[in-house]
Specification:
Layout lengths: L6 H4 L8 H16 L12 H9 L3 H13 L7 H13 L3 H13 L7 H13 L3 H13 L7 H13 L3 H13 L7 H13 L3 H13 L7 H12 L4 H13 L7 H12 L4 H13 L7 H12 L4 H13 L7 H13 L3 H13 L7 H13 L3 H13 L7 H13 L3 H11 L4 H17 L2
C-alpha cells in the first residue's frame, strides 16, 4: 500500500496558489460586496462604478478594480495600475488585498520578487484573521520558502487557518499530525482534520484518510470505509488513491474482488506516471490477471516504472529479458536492470547478479564479484543469498575456505526455512571441531543482535 511520503511531496508546499486562482476567488467575493454601490448600473462589476467607489476610498472597490486591471476584465490589462490599487487597499488594512499583494511579491508578478515584502503583507493579513494568508504563511514556514523552515510555526498558522475552515490548511495540519512534524504525532487528531478537508472534497485528504482507515491508525480499522475514501479521491484523479483502490480491488479487501476493475484504476494512475501502478499493471499483463496476458505490454509498463528507478520493476524487467519474454532473450540487458535494482539495495537483484557472475551468463565469470553481491543480499537477510554465500565458503569458491563462515551463513538461511541450507549445515557440523562450532554459533548470535 502507498505511503504518505515526505512532507514536501505531500503537503501543498509548492505552496502559494497561482495568482489566477486567487483572483478568481476574490472577484466573486467582491461582486457581492459591491452590489449596493451598483444601483443604476447594468451590473456590480461595471468598471466605472467600481472605479468611482475605489476613488472615493472604498477598500473593497480598490481591491476589485486592482483585480480587474490585473485580469483585463472590463478594462485594458495594466499590471502597474493593478498593483497601484491593490496597494491602496492593502494600506487601508483590506486583508484580501494584503494577501494578494503578498502573493504578487512572492511570485514576482507585476512587482520585483521580494520574499521579505511578501511575508510582511501575508503577516498583516494573517493577524487580521485572513485564513488564506494564515494558510499561506503555514506553507511558507513548512517549505522554508523565503523564511527559515520552521514546522512549529507552520503548524501554528495552519491551525488558525484550519479552524476558520480553510481546506488546504485542514489537510496540511492533518498531514503534519500524521507524520509528527512540528506537532506530536497523533493519528486521531490527524483523522479529525483530514475528515474535515475530505468532507469538502479535498482529494489528498480523502486519499490519506483512506490509508488511515485501512491501517487502523488511531481509529478502528475499516477496509470498506478506506475503499470509499479511496474511490472518492480516485474519481478526482488522485493517483495515490487510484493505486490504493486498485490494490483493494485486486485483493478483494473492503470491496468485492474485481481484477478487471483493478487494472482499470492501475492504468489511470499509470498513465499519470505513478510508478507503483505501472509496475502493478505490468504484473497483471505478465500474469494475465484482469487483462489478457501480454508479455510485450508487461515489458512496456515495467520499463516505464523501471525508468523511474522503481527497483521491483527493474528486477521484473530483468527477468523478462533473461527469459526472452516480450522481446528476444538479452542477458546483457537483463544484467543492466538487475544491476540498477541491486544498486538500490534490492536483495533479489543482488542475488541474481551473484548467480550471473557464478555462471558467467551476461557477464564474465567472476567468483569474487559473485561473492560481493551474494554478501550484500545475505546481509539484508535474503536466505537464498545466505545459502549461496555459505556454500562458497564451504567449497572455497572465490573465497578462502572457511567452515566457521560457512556454518554461520548456512545456519542463518536454514533458520528462515531454506531446506538445502539445513541439510548442508547438518553435514558440515560433522566435519567441525567443538571450538569451531562454538565460534560459528557465537557469530550467528552476534549477527542476530546487530540485524534481528
Amino acid at each position: 500500500m502507498h505511503q504518505p511520503g515526505s512532507l514536501e511531496n505531500s503537503m501543498n508546499v509548492k505552496g502559494t496558489p497561482p495568482v489566477s486562482v486567487w483572483l478568481s476567488r476574490l472577484t466573486g467575493l467582491f461582486l457581492l460586496c459591491l452590489v449596493p454601490l451598483a444601483q443604476g448600473a447594468d451590473s456590480p462589476d461595471d468598471p466605472a462604478v467600481v472605479r468611482l467607489a475605489a476613488e472615493q476610498g472604498d477598500a473593497q472597490a480598490q481591491t476589485l478594480i486592482g483585480v480587474m486591471y490585473w485580469e483585463g476584465k472590463g478594462v485594458s490589462q495594466d499590471t502597474r495600475e493593478a498593483v497601484h490599487w491593490l496597494r491602496k487597499a492593502a494600506e487601508q488594512g483590506e486583508s484580501n488585498a494584503q494577501t494578494l499583494l503578498g502573493l504578487l511579491y512572492d511570485k514576482g508578478e507585476g512587482v520585483a520578487q521580494d520574499h521579505q515584502e511578501a511575508m510582511q503583507w501575508y503577516r498583516k493579513a494573517a493577524l487580521q484573521g485572513n485564513a488564506d494568508a494564515q494558510a499561506t504563511l503555514g506553507l511558507l514556514y513548512a517549505n522554508g520558502d523565503g523564511v527559515p523552515r520552521d514546522y512549529k510555526e507552520a503548524a501554528r498558522w495552519l491551525r488558525q487557518a484550519a479552524e476558520r475552515g480553510d481546506v488546504r490548511a485542514q489537510f496540511d495540519l492533518g498531514f503534519m499530525y500524521h507524520e509528527g512534524e512540528g506537532v506530536t504525532q497523533d493519528y486521531q487528531e490527524a483523522a479529525k482534520w483530514l475528515r474535515l478537508a475530505a468532507g469538502k472534497g479535498d482529494a489528498k485528504a480523502q486519499s490519506l484518510l483512506g490509508l488511515i482507515c485501512l491501517e487502523g491508525q488511531g481509529i478502528a480499522q475499516d477496509s470498506r470505509e478506506a475503499a470509499r475514501w479511496f474511490r472518492l479521491a480516485a474519481e478526482q484523479g488522485n493517483v495515490d488513491a487510484q493505486f490504493s483502490l486498485g490494490v483493494l480491488l485486486d485483493k478483494g479487501e473492503g470491496v468485492p474482488q474485481n481484477r478487471k476493475e483493478a487494472a482499470r484504476w492501475f492504468r489511470k494512475a499509470a498513465e499519470q506516471g505513478h510508478e507503483l501502478s505501472q509496475s502493478r499493471l505490468g504484473d497483471m499483463y505478465d500474469q494475465g490477471q484482469g487483462v489478457l496476458p501480454n508479455s510485450k505490454e508487461a515489458m512496456r509498463w515495467y520499463r516505464r516504472a523501471a525508468e523511474q528507478e522503481d527497483p521491483v520493476a527493474q528486477v521484473k524487467l530483468g527477468f523478462l529479458y533473461a527469459d526472452g519474454k516480450g522481446s528476444d532473450r538479452n542477458l546483457q540487458e537483463a544484467e543492466k536492470w538487475f544491476r540498477k535494482a541491486a544498486e538500490h539495495g534490492y536483495p533479489l537483484a543482488q542475488a541474481k547478479l551473484g548467480f550471473m557472475y557464478v555462471d558467467g551468463k551476461g557477464v564474465p565469470q567472476d567468483f569474487q564479484e559473485a561473492e560481493k553481491w551474494f554478501r550484500k543480499a545475505a546481509e539484508r537477510g535474503y536466505p537464498l543469498a545466505q545459502f549461496n554465500l555459505g556454500s562458497m565458503y564451504l567449497n572455497g569458491d572465490g573465497v578462502a575456505k572457511d567452515v566457521v563462515q560457512a556454518y554461520m551463513w548456512l545456519a542463518l538461511a536454514a533458520a528462515q526455512g531454506h531446506e538445502k541450507a539445513g541439510k548442508s549445515q547438518a553435514m558440515l557440523i560433522k566435519q567441525m571441531s567443538a571450538a569451531q562450532i562454538e565460534e560459528a554459533q557465537e557469530r550467528v548470535r552476534q549477527w542476530r543482535v546487530v540485524k534481528p
